[in-house]
Amino acid sequence: MYLFGRSTCEKQDIKHVEVCGSSANFPAKNLRFKVHDKSDDEIFVIQIAWQTSVEDAIPTIREEMARRNIDVPNNIKLRVEDPRGPEKELEPGDKISKHFNIDHIEEGLILIYPQ
Questions:
Q1: What region does 20 belong to: left with phi over 0, alpha with psi -120 to 50, or beta?
Q2: Which is deepest, 61, 86, 101, 115, by most CB within 10 Å?
Q3: Cα 67 from chain centre
Q4: How far apart are CA 91 and CA 77, in angstroms?
Q5: Which residues pair with 32 in a beta bridge?
Q6: Measured between alpha carbons, how far is 78 from 52 in angstroms, rounded to an integer?
Q7: What's the Rg (C-alpha) of the chain?
Q8: Is 23 part of any domain?
Q9: Alpha-carbon distances of 65 from 46, 52, 53, 86, 106, rounded to whole Å
Q10: How many C-beta neighbours within 10 Å does residue 52 have?
Q11: Per residue in 17-56, pLDDT tens?
Q12: What's the pLDDT score for residue 25?
């Protein structure tokens, strides 16, 4: 019995909890999306893990578009609308987190460009 905590030989138990493609270390974030040049200007929210690559996020985005009865193009390009400057294209290998300030994620908007 150890009165003062864990044994120094005991390994720390680290578990990852999968939630919508996220884990305890990289929790999912609610990201706002809009199809560029769509007449209704509908903005929708998709929960995506913060450290997900753009390439890995595309299937989730396509599924949500289909679920909302939005035409799903064969190819999608993503750009981030930035109120402080020009739009930035998200490259396939980029992490979603690269393009957002975690403290102000609600200000970000990802534009979907059908190709």
A1: left
A2: 61
A3: 18
A4: 8
A5: 45
A6: 14
A7: 18
A8: no
A9: 10, 18, 18, 25, 20
A10: 21
A11: 333 444 455 578 888 888 987 666 788 888 888 889 999 9
A12: 53
- The residues, any chain, with a CB within 8 Å of residue 53's CB and separated by 6 or more, are 92, 93, 94, 95, 96
pLDDT score for 2? 44
- φ/ψ (deg, to 5) at 97: -60, -25
Least confident of 7-21, 43-57, 61-75, 77-91: 7-21
Residue appearing with tokens 């799903």? 72
What's 109's domain CATH number? 3.10.20
**Residues 55, 95 contacting (CB under 8 angstroms):** no
By residue range, what is the domain housing residue 80?
Answer: 28-40+50-114
pTM confidence score? 0.69
Amino acid at position 34, single letter:
K
C-alpha to C-alpha distance for 40 and 43, rounded to whole angstroms: 9
**73 part of a folded domain:** yes
Token code pair at residue 30: 């609610």
Q: Per the structure, how many domains does the chain have? A: 1
Does 72 map to a domain?
yes
